[in-house]
Amino acid sequence: MSQLTGELRAQVRGLLADIREVALATLDADGGPFASFVTTAPAPDGRPLLLLSDLARHTKNLKRQPQCSMLFVGEGGDQADPLVRCRVTLTGRLERAVDQDAARIQYCAVNKSAADYAGFGDFSLYRMDVSGGHLVAGFGRIAELSVEDLFAATHENTRTGAAP
């Protein structure tokens, strides 16, 4: 575990639990980066769930190469400078959730409008297997994050298969 304070660790976990609109970066067929805008919801273990269409370029990229990153940016509040906002980049692999029904229920409970299209044949739920993170909590407040920093009870959830 990194040297994060308990307060900052709670802020990071809160950001991952509360932010629904994120940037997803995948690798195109030529190896170049491709960023897209997606919505997310936390799985029971806190890791991101995404509802993705097979027709989307980012999904095609993930099927070929599941490595990706996701950028979560905190609310701006009354801050005039967006660069002082807290943000976390997660890195890892995004793969089709094992239990599609449980993942769909979890995702749609958070993203209610997704229920209108979550059952379409070209949509599937994906879960991110996070390998680490990078925190920028304002100027000069930067830290590399372990999986333990990002999610509580990581090892128990991974071993028991608690996540969809």
Looking at this protein, list some descriptive labels.
164 residues; alpha+beta; six-stranded antiparallel beta barrel; 5 helices; globular; disordered C terminus
Please give the count of helices: 5
In terms of DSSP E residues, the strand content is 35-45%
**Distance from first to last alpha carbon:** 25 Å
Radius of gyration, taken over Cα atoms and rounded to an integer in Å? 16 Å
What order do the strands of the largest sheet run in, or round the barrel if closed? 1-2-3-6-5-4
Major beta-sheet overview: 6 strands, antiparallel, barrel
Low-pLDDT ranges: 154-163
Characterize the structure shown.
The chain is an alpha+beta fold. The chain contains 5 helices and 7 strands; from the N terminus they run αβββαββαββαα. The chain has helices at about 5-20, 55-65, 100-110, 145-150, 155-160, and strands at about 20-25, 35-40, 50-55, 65-75, 85-95, 125-135, 140-145. It has a 6-stranded antiparallel beta barrel with strand order 1-2-3-6-5-4. A hairpin with a 5-residue loop joins strand 6 and strand 7 (about 140-145). Mean pLDDT is about 90; it is low at about 155-164.
